[in-house]
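Board notes (copied after class):
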Amino acid sequence: MDNEAALPRDFDALRTMILDRREVLPKRLAQIAAYALSNPDEIAFGTAASIAQTAGVQPSTLIRFAQHLGFDGFTSLQAVFRERLRERQTSYEERLSALRGDTHGLSKNRTILNGFLTAATHSIETISHNVEEDVLERAVDILSGAETIYLLARRRSYPITAYMAYAFGKLKIRNQLIESTAGIDPEIISFAGPRDAAIAISFSPYASATIEHAAALSARNVPVVAITDSAFSPLAQSASVWFEAAEGDFSGFRSLSGTMALAMALTVSVAEKRRNT
């Protein structure tokens, strides 16, 4: 009974438990943990076989993971992920119903627009819920004290740092966007030192260059502020401070709305802090 009483009954409590144990999880269980936190909807909807295939493990590993957390089996663990969806259903069911209603008589293009707007709203609300004020304050403190802010991102994350570089430039804040077409990114970041800072952004599947550059900067005592999608992200391991940004998607295309809002909040907050000190 004591063990049953200690089991997490909601997703936030389960997430906290997993994060507390991430350093001691065996390799395969850590792999499942990372997948579960990054893809909670897939855990809620999938079968043990389909989840195992997507996560790259055996179905028996899911059972071992659930039992490691104190559940009697994977079905009991999955119930927590399904409850998360039920808790969200009240707020999102109305939107989904409205979206379905709006599609009546509208063009396909308008339907697509409505879908992306819904995904963007979901992303912004999720990130707003996940960002802790003390983490935000620490990130702003690090960045506002930096001589140069290095900006690291590739692939779909790149537009975020590109816009941050533009905004920092307009705000007269020295920054360096790592985007060398000459292939000298390692040489550029070699100029960074402990009096500088870096912002690194990457989501699964993680851009290897971003992960490598962030690790290299961290090894040289350059503080890294990271935006990524999971505590198990390799980017989080190199970060002095990191934010979890779980973006929504529409038809498989993920939004960047929440991440962009967070990035611009950091940019403007840094400028404000510098102006007032």
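Comment from the instructor: The CA atoms of residues 119 and 249 lie 5 Å apart. The chain has 14 helices and seven strands.
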